Amino acid sequence: MPEVPGVQALLDFLLGIPEVVAYALIALGSALENIFPPIPSDTFVVLGAVLADRGSLEPAGVLLAAWAANTGGALCIFGLARRHGPAMFRTRWGRRLLRPHQLDRMSRFYERHGLWAIFLSRCLPVLRVIVPTFAGFASLGAVRALVPLVTASLLWNALMVAGGILASRNVDRLFDLLGRVNAWLLVVAAIVLGVVLGWWIRSRREEREEREEREEEE
Predict the structure, then answer these.
(1) Range of the domain at 159
(2) For the chain, how many helices (H) and strands (E)?
(3) Where is average pLDDT lowest: 56-70, 72-86, 87-101?
(4) Contact assessment for residue 163 and residue 49, using Cβ atoms and an 8 Å cutoff
(5) Does any domain span residue 216?
(6) What is the pTM of this model?
(7) How far is residue 52 from each of residues 6, 38, 63, 126, measured CA to CA in Å?
(8) Burial call 174-200: b when 16+ CB within 10 Å, e when fewer
(9) Residue 217 maps to a domain
(10) Using an 8 Å Cβ cutoff, are 134 and 106 in contact?
(11) What does the angle CA 117 – CA 98 – CA 89 come to, to the nearest 5 degrees?
């Protein structure tokens, strides 16, 4: 099994810094994923779990820092999207992304399936940022978004902490496994995005055909 370059050096560095700084780095990494999805928040959580197993941090502290920061960041993005999204989609550039009838359909989807869509998306890279953001664009109720987002983030981060603690003595294999799991989750996310893109194209084509039919009737 190949070793992950620099992992031990990074762990040695983290073991040597004050606990409060280590917690802050875990929180920062978990929060920034909501702004820049390629940042691997899971890696920060697993690193924190390894530190907890080696006596530097507390497992509950790692979980709380990661969960609060990741959830708080997602809720901030959701709130901004909910507040400014409807106005943005009335602009010319916003209508290029989503036409009014597409926004209406998306709102109906979130009203019916928003809870499960948000809950499941928190386990998938990239989608864990996109789905809550578009829930805000669709003006989903804050409570309906809050419940699945908070619950799923807690469960996922708890799984990462538990896995990190159990496998911390074989850290190279742990990060190799994490990379493989995230790669497969990215494949799943890409398939879901492909389905969404297909819907976007099809709904645009249907709108155009309906408009052409009305023009012919007139």
Answers:
(1) 7-211
(2) 9, 0
(3) 87-101
(4) yes
(5) no
(6) 0.70
(7) 19, 25, 10, 27
(8) bbbebeeebeebeeebeebeeeeeeee
(9) no
(10) yes
(11) 105
